[in-house]
Amino acid sequence: SQKIEQNSEALNIQEGKTATLTCNYTNYSPAYLQWYRQDPGRGPVFLLLIRENEKEKRKERLKVTFDTTLKQSLFHITASQPADSATYLCALVWAGNMLTFGGGTRLMVKP
Amino acid sequence: DVKVTQSSRYLVKRTGEKVFLECVQDMDHENMFWYRQDPGLGLRLIYFSYDVKMKEKGDIPEGYSVSREKKERFSLILESASTNQTSMYLCASSPRLRGRPNYGYTFGSGTRLTVV
Q1: DSSP per-residue codes, B86-106
Q2: pLDDT digit string (tens) for B75-91?
Q3: Domain B4-115, what fold?
Q4: Which helix (H) or strand (E) holds B43?
Q5: Which domains are seen in chain A, by residue range?
Q6: A103–B42 CB contact, under 8 Å
Q7: Which residues of A lie closer than 8 Å to B, measured between beta carbons?
């Protein structure tokens, strides 16, 4: 069966360090992979998209990698700040328009 | 900026009531979606629509229906609310993603529905 797995345990890091979140998937052949941020009680907010033929994408302090052989994406936040504390969701795009979400990983950045 | 507006942030309804959740987007997006989000279960797709009057079932359509009479509006209907439909409901929209690789979904702020 198809699965998207993110670490359900919260990730706690110190301010200024790099946070790395993992997204693994099985039995998908996604065309794109997306990352979203979700704050408590709010809807997810789109951050970045990476295509299957891209190895890496950057946006300001964010970096995403996509390894279709390992079926894994890594999401990095460099120089993390307490304001980066949130839940981060990965999502696979398949069949042109459909998005399937992972369960999300909560990131806590401590000052 | 694209805005997706959900009509209510919080709703409390009684078991057996018919419930309407409304969603409006202002960017002429073709696709609209309804998800529910529950702790430990993540986001689950209820229904989606890729055009006016078109609808497709998602992963958990039972107990729900939808209506899309205008491109900008997508309504979720709980025919007879039950306590297991207590959840956070999220509406989203997107352009057709094929050929437009830099777009994600735009979500509304959500409606927290409690059925008592």
Answers
A1: -EEEEEEEE---TT-TT---E
A2: 999 999 999 999 999 99
A3: Immunoglobulin-like (2.60.40)
A4: strand B42-49
A5: 3-110 (2.60.40.10)
A6: yes
A7: 8, 32, 34, 36, 41-47, 49, 51, 89, 91, 93, 96-104
